[in-house]
Design a protein that fits this description.
alpha/beta
């Protein structure tokens, strides 16, 4: 059995009971990241030796989900970005069974208010690019 180390984030989940409340706060948070780059928005990861993790695929994946699921996932955006930027812990890594030459990394964390979540990263072997795919609670 492999012991997983879980990153303890300082960020809390975004509060709100309506999608538009949560969306407003999450989009403000995302816009601050987006303004730092002229092209694709990204964050730099400690685990990947300061490589860029691009955030654009996450939004298309998010809007394939239902309204309640979108809100549930968006609430973890600040904690997930903090985890990507600061977590030195090894993720669960496996080959993507649907795409050749792609690795999937799953990082696990908890928010300041004690809610567990997972962040999934797609890493292409050929170009060494990394993309944030999904954020979801593990409870």
């Amino acid at each position: 059995m492999v012991l997983m180390r879980v990153y303890q984030a300082k960020a809390v989940t975004i509060s709100g009971t309506d999608f538009h409340e949560v969306w407003r706060i999450a989009s403000y948070f995302y816009q601050r990241i987006k303004k730092k780059s002229r092209r694709l928005p990204y964050v730099r990861s400690v685990y990947f030796k300061k490589d860029k993790i691009f955030l654009n695929i996450f939004w298309s994946h998010l809007f394939e989900k239902s309204w309640p699921d979108r809100m549930r996932r968006l609430k973890f955006l600040p904690a997930a970005i903090e985890l990507l930027e600061k977590s030195p812990f090894d993720p669960l890594t496996k080959e993507n069974p649907n795409e050749f030459g792609v690795l999937l990394h799953r990082f696990f964390g908890t928010t300041k208010n004690g809610i567990s979540f997972c962040v999934q990263i797609k890493a292409e072997k050929s170009s060494n690019k990394k993309y944030l795919i999904s954020i979801f609670p593990t409870d």
